[in-house]
Task: structure prediction
Amino acid sequence: MPHLKANGIDLAYDSFGDDAAEAILLISGLGTQRIRWTLSFCEALARRGYRVIRFDNRDAGGSTHFSDHPAPDFGALAAELGAGRRPAVPYTLHEMAADAIGLLDALAISRAHVVGRSMGGMIAQIVASEYPDRVLSLTSIMSGTGNPALPSAAPDVMAMMMRPTPDPFADEAGYLAARLAFAKRIAGHPFDEALHREFLLGELRCAYDPAGSARQIAAIAVTGDRRARLATIQVPALVIHGTDDPLIPPACGEDTAAAIPGAELLLLDGMGHDLPAELDATVIDAIVRTAERGSKPATA
Result:
């Protein structure tokens, strides 16, 4: 597992394709690891002529975990935010965006096409708005803007998220059953249970850190509404969202596209909060179409 020092922490990453090609940086979602960008997806994208890089966010997988900081108290966090105060948290999505830029620096990549899913889409949005000279194009997948007026997750989905999960080292079967039930609930159709089981087991082998996922949730909560910054994005942008997403409803994708000047909105019928292999070709085609619009002009 290759690692690089970036933004003062260690980031675990993988690279596919020609190192000299234009780069596409894939940013993962909440509590998940880079393997959710599957090998087949990354390799297919690389065959389109790009260097494809996936990495573990801080507090996930093989990257640095902020274990010196306990899991946040969400009740206290909500109370502080409700009172209009900014809670003290280990980091925000802005630091996570700086990690992505630090990885590009460490790999000597001046500009990249940035693609993020779910929380990764939020991070990608910040990268594009705060580091405009480093981004060639933006693709935000099943994400939102932080707009507090937008609908939240379906009540049963929120309840499943908040329900304690069995310790996988004491009850692996119970842990897998709970996590698979949640994955199936938020996914569209078809749901590939075998693949999701493989994801879960692969992530367990690398790192299990529910407190890290909680710190990422806190980072999302305190970062807030990004619409004013999204309005400054000038690179070609694509927003992909599933029509059946019960975790981040499609209105959030529509709001993201509306906030970014000239953004394309691609709503995929039947897609939930998941990227099934059946949609790989559609998603890759859309990413490449957007990347081609933002590619650097050829030099003489």
Remarks:
- The chain has one domain: 3-157+210-294.
- The chain is about 40% helix and 15% strand.
- Strands lie at 3-6, 9-16, 23-27, 51-55, 112-117, 135-141, 237-242, 264-268.
